[in-house]
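[User] Could I get a sequence and structure tokens?

[Assistant]
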Amino acid sequence: MRSDRGSVTLWVLGLSIMLLAMGGLAVDFWRALALQRELAAVADSMAVAAASGIDEELYRATGAVVVDPGRAESLGSSYAGFQDVDLDVVHVTTAPDGTSVSVLVEGTMELGLLGLFVDETEPLRVRATATAIPVLVP
């Protein structure tokens, strides 16, 4: 009976450490998920802004709604400057036929406790993409 003294204390201490570790991992996971959702909202907004860059001369001449690649990239990139998010990579690409615009944004997040289990020298990279099709509303 005397050899079991203190075993409950060790179990509680071990479980407390495990609970703190799992809580730290959960916090990092939810921070990364929140950043991804924020980047997705930025990418959606940028894609809509870029899709508004239609070729006006072609539209007036033929009535075809086609995105001007240079104007779409300019509009999308300038819209990125208004966002309150640190974006590391921003790519605005137009489909070859000019029917859609795709936006890729990338951000980074420094890891907390999760950095103990992965390469700590590299921050976590989070990406989001969005595609928009220009539509004229009569």
Q: What stands out?
A: The first strand starts at residue 89 and ends at 94. The mean pLDDT is 86. The radius of gyration is 24 Å. The helical segments are 7-51, 56-62, 69-80.
